[in-house]
Prior knowledge:
- By secondary structure, the chain is mainly beta.
- The chain is built from one helix and eight strands.
- The protein has one helix spanning 3-15, and strands at residues 37-47, 50-59, 64-74, 77-85, 93-99, 107-115, 120-122, 127-129.
- The protein starts with a helix and ends in an 8-residue tail after the last strand.
- The relative contact order is 0.25.
Amino acid sequence: MKPTAFIVLMFLSLSACSKQDSDLAFPVKKTVTNQGASLVDFSGKWDHGAVQLQFTLSGNLSNVTAFKIFSGSSSNQLCLIGELDVTVIQTPSTFSFNDPAPKGSPTYYMIGIEDNQGHITYLNSILSVSKPSGLGK
Length: 137
């Protein structure tokens, strides 16, 4: 898939979220830029009805102010579910996020990086996390 098509698909997916999916507002201006950040690792595991996410970034992170976490029951419709505010970043850095209410099995996740001008870069990686078989919750 060409990068332009992927970006358009991401914007359509993000704008399809309903208000009940998230109380957090999307940025007024969605911008994809190259901030020089590289995703080293992005993983998640099902844990007692919640999903524990962990991601590691390297590169130039000096202008990063927050990470936006998006999720959904489909990789084509991801909604903002949380934010990690950042003050000082040493690279590489590992971050964790807990999703207490996954949207189903599997649940898909994506990370957005917000810079100090409010621009957001959506990382080109969508993670799928499934509930292990045999678990009731």
